[in-house]
Amino acid sequence: MADTPQSGPAPDVPTRLTTADGKPLKAALAKAQAAARRRAFLLVLPLLAFILITFVVPIGQMLHRSVHNEGFAVHQDIGSGVRTPIMTNLRDWFAANPQGTEPDEVAYEALVKDLVVLRDLKAPGQAGTRINYERSGSRSMFTKAARRAKKIEPPYKEAMLELDEDWADPELWQVMRGAVSPYTSNFYLAAVDRERDAAGDIQRVNENRRVYVTLFVRTLVLSILITAMTFILGYPIAHLLATLPLRYSNLLMILVLLPFWTSLLVRTTSWMVLLQSQGVVNDLLVSIGLLSDDNRLQMMYNRWGTIIAMTHILLPFMVLPLYSVMRPINPSYVRAARSLGATSWTAFRRVYFPQTVPGIGAGALLVFILAVGYYITPALVGGADGQLISNLIAFHMQKSLNWSLAAALAALLLAGILALYWIYDRLIGIDNLKLG
Amino acid sequence: MALPKHASTLERVWHYSYLVICALIFLFLMAPILVVIPLSFNAEPYFTFTEKMLRLDPEGYSTRWYDLLLTFGMQAPDAPRDGSWWADAWANAHWINAAKNSVIVGFFSTILATSLGTMAALGLARSEMPARRTIMAILISPMIVPIIITATGLFFFYSSIGIQDWGIPYLGVILAHATLGIPFVIITVTATLVGFDHSLSRAAASMGADPMTTFFRVQMPLIMPGVISGALFAFVTSFDEVVVVLFVGGLDEQTIPRQMWNGIREQISPAILSVATILVVISIALLTTVELLRRRSERLRGLSPG
Q1: Domain CATH code at residue A413
Q2: CA Rg value for chain B
Q3: ipTM computed for the complex
C-alpha cells in the first residue's frame, strides 16, 4: 500500500506527503506533537505531584473523616497499634432487629457484654465520646457503666436502668445504632442542624441547638456585605487610577499595593488599635465633639469589627481587577456619548459602566471567595457575633475535638467555594488573575 | 482627569467631591499603616495618641517597646550592653528566635515553591500542554481554599504519616508554606511568559544553541523579574502565615506571626505595634523591589516605554 519515494506515485493518485526518511508526514507530525506534549507535561509533573501529595491528598483524607468515624466500632491501641473491633454484640443485635425496635433483654445483654470488652480495653471513654458527639451527657454514662460492667447480673435491663435511667432513652439507642457502623452521614446532618429521631427519620434539632445554619447564613450575609463594601469603595479609586496619567496613577497605586503587601496580622492589629473603645477613632470623634465620652462606639469584638477590617483587607483584590479592566477603556467612547448630547451621568451609566462589568465580576467573585473562608480577622476582632464558619471549624478542631463534625463543616464550605472557583474559572479564567 | 473648561457648576461640584471621596478612600486604605508607626514609639503603654505625642513633645516618644523586643526572654536583660549582652539577646530573646525561625521556614519554602513553580509555569505556557486549564486550576487552588481547611487537612495528614518523627525540623511547615506560595509563583511567572516572544528561542536554536543554552541565555534573563517577584510573594506568604503553623508546627517552632498571634490573643502590648512597624518597613522594601522588577520586565519586553 505505502508509496515509496523511489517508485513514484501514479499520476491520478494524490501524493502522500512523507518526511525525508519516508514516514508519512501525518504520523511524523503526530509523533512530534506527542513528544512536545510529553515535554510540557514533564515540566509540570513535579509540581503537580507535590501539590497532590501535600495538598489534595490531605484534604481528601480530611473529607473522608466527615463520613467515617470508628470511635464506636474499632479500638486502636495507641502503643502497639493493634486494632480490636468493639461493640460487636450490639452491632449483631442492631443487624437482627430493624429500625425502631424497642431494646429488649437481649439488647441489654449485648450492651453489657460490650461494656466488659470496653473496660478490658480501657476504651469506654473513646466509645462514650463518639456517642456524646450526637447526644450530650452520654460519655459519663459509658464510663460509669463500664466500671461496673463485670458485676452486672441478669436481668440486664433492670440492672442497667438502675445505674442510669437514661439507658432506656430511645434517642441514645438511635445514636448507638448509627455509630456501630464507622460510615455515617450523621455529621453532615449535624452540620445543617438536623438529627435522626428515635424512628430514624430526619428532623431539625432543638431550637436552642440550632447554630450551624445560622452561622452559614451569617457567613454568607457578611461576605456579600463585605463584597458590596469593597465594590463601593474600590470602584471610585479604580476609576481615578485608570483615568490619571500613568506617572500619577503609578504613585497612587502604591497606596493600594502597600496594604496588600503588609502582613495580615499587622493590618488586623492596627484595626484593633483604631477601633477599640479607647482607640484612635473613638478618641477623634470625642475630641471633635461628635460623641460624648461615656457614649463611645463599640466597633470591635462584634460584627462591625469583622466587616470594617475585612473590607480593608480585601479591598485591593477588588481594585486590581477593576483597574486592569478600566485602564484599556478608550475615553473617546464617553466623549462621543457626551457630544451626542448625553449628560455625564447618562454617559457613565450607558457607556462607561457596561464596559467595566467584567472587572466587577472578577473582583466581586474573588473577594467573595476569599471572604467566605476567612479565619484570622474574625477570630481576632469579631467577638461573639462576628465569627464566621471557619472559626467554628477551628473551634471543633481545637476545643470540642469533634473532628468529624469539623470535617463535615469544612466539606460543606469547600463545596461552596469550589463551585464559585469553577464559575470564576469559566467566566474570567484562572490565568487572568493578576497580582499588582 | 482634568476638568474641561466648559464644565457646568454641578459638574465642577461633583468633580471636586469625587476627588475628596477618593482621598478619603485612600486614607481608609492607609490609615492602619499610618497609625501603627507613630504609636509604636509611644512612651506610655496605651494604644492611642497621648497629649504629649500630639504636642510633639519628645518625652511622649520612646523606643522602649523596640527595646522590649530585644530583652523579652533574655536571661540577663539588665546587664551592661556589651558583647555578652548581645550574645544573650541573640540566643534567648523570644522575638529574635521567632525571627530566625521565620526566616528559615520562609527561605526553604520559597526555594521549593519557586523552583517547582517556575518549571511548571514554563510547561503551562507551552501551547502543547495537555489539560492545561484543569491543571492550572489545581495548582492555583491552595490560594482559594480557606486556610483553615488546608491546615485541618495537613494536621490529620502529618499526624497519620508521623512527620514529627522524621527528625527534620520545620519540615511540615516548610512543605505547607511552599504549597501556599506556589500559586503566586505560577501567576507571576506565567504573566511574564504571556508576552514572551517565542521567535527569540527559535532564533537561538537556529544559531545552534542547544535547549539548555537557549533556556539559560535567552529565556531565563527575560523571565527573571517574574521569577523574583514570585519568590518574594512566596516568601511574604510564608512570613505572614499563622494558621498552618498553629495547627502543624511543633511547640518550639515559634515564628513571628505565631508570636504576634499569641501576643494579640493574650494581652496586646505596644510591643506588638513595634513588630508591626518593622514588618511594614519590610513590606515597603519588598514592594519597591517588586515594582522595580515589574518595570524592568516591561522595559525588557518592550511593553512600555522607558
Answers
A1: 1.10.3720.10
A2: 25
A3: 0.88
